[in-house]
Amino acid sequence: MTEQSVTVAGSPVGGEIVTAAAPQDGTPDTRVSVKPKNNRAWFLVLPVVISVAFTAVIPLMTVVNFSVQDIFSPDDRIFVGLEWFRSVSRDPEIRAAFVRTLLFSAQVLLLEIPLGVALAVAMPRRGVWVSAALVIVALPLLIPWNVVGTIWQIFARADIGLGGWTINNVLGVDFNYTLDSTDAWITVLIMDVWHWTPLVALLAYAGLRSIPDPYFQAAQIDGASAWATFRHIQLPRLRGVLTIAILLRFMDSFMIYTEPFVVTGGGPGNATSFLSILLSKIAVGQFDLGPAGAFSLLYFLVVQIVSYVFFTVLTRAGR
Predict the structure, then answer these.
(1) Which of 27, 88, 139, 319 is buried deepest, with most CB atoms within 10 A?
(2) Is pLDDT larger for residue 56 or for residue 180?
(3) How far is CA 87 from the centre of its chain?
(4) What's the average model confidence in pLDDT over 38-45?
(5) Contact by Cβ (8 Å): 192, 256
């Protein structure tokens, strides 16, 4: 009796290649040869695992430890369970900061996504001006966050800033972001739009450049208008890119800290006191590590949940 080797299901089973010897006369045979696995490849990802452990997992576990204790000193602490979580979730100041942060993120998305797409559509696709346009659009992204805050802190000043002086003396509008809560909110919002709309524009521009030219040639032959071309060719092809842009901009705007802290410090009053600024005051200013730990974990959980909802809705809409 002669035998031939066949592969079971044609794929590895449990990381191992399994083969069976099947006789030609149809008689079943249960003999199996197993190829040993080689686990040495896992050592290549070991540095990444160690880095993530030290930069994410261990700090997160430390925060979890703080969130269930009332800490009086390094050697004096008591276990309080979920008390800080209940206290933080019922705090009216934190609830108000949550509403402000959510409103700010919604306004950022409503402004930056359309502006970024419009800017990407207007940018040249060929010629010597492509490189110049990309560099000019990307300039705000190259500026550090604290420098952006300092720039707008001076620029929007009514007494010495060019922007504030122009609004007050040329446009005749009484503008002072240090005293008026609405002016402070508008200043922070415009600053974020100026800083991060280029990111949306660059992502959308990359998506537009990936569209093959025959699509545009066919639209031109059919006599499609610019709006029809955008609506039926460009926008559908940007759906994946815009999903990434929306997720990135939501997470960044919901966790914004440096720019509004430098410009307004969360004021006037609590007008621009977002969740991140309030968390910093509790953790650093008041040194309440227990409430700050619970606050940061709830903050992290909200960002993850909302981002997941955004991703699920946008992905299903793309189908």
Answers:
(1) 88
(2) 180
(3) 28
(4) 76
(5) yes
With b for 16 or more beta-carbon neighbours within 10 A and e for fewer, the 182-221 pattern comes to ebbbebbbebbbebbbbbbbbbbbebbeeeeeeeeeebee
If you average pLDDT over every residue of the chain, what do you get?
A: 84
Work out the end-to-end distance of the chain between its first and last CA atoms, rounded to an integer number of angstroms: 55
Question: Which whole number is the average pLDDT over 8-21?
Answer: 46
CATH superfamily of 85-318: MetI-like (1.10.3720.10)
pLDDT higher than threshold 70 for residue 244: yes
Instruction: Output Rg (C-alpha) for the chain, integer angstroms.
Output: 28
Helix, strand counts (H, E) of the chain:
15, 5
pLDDT at residue 118 is higher than 70: yes
Residue burial 156-167, b: 16+ Cβ < 10 Å; e: rest: bbbeebebbbeb
Q: Where in the chain is the domain with CATH 1.10.3720.10?
A: 85-318
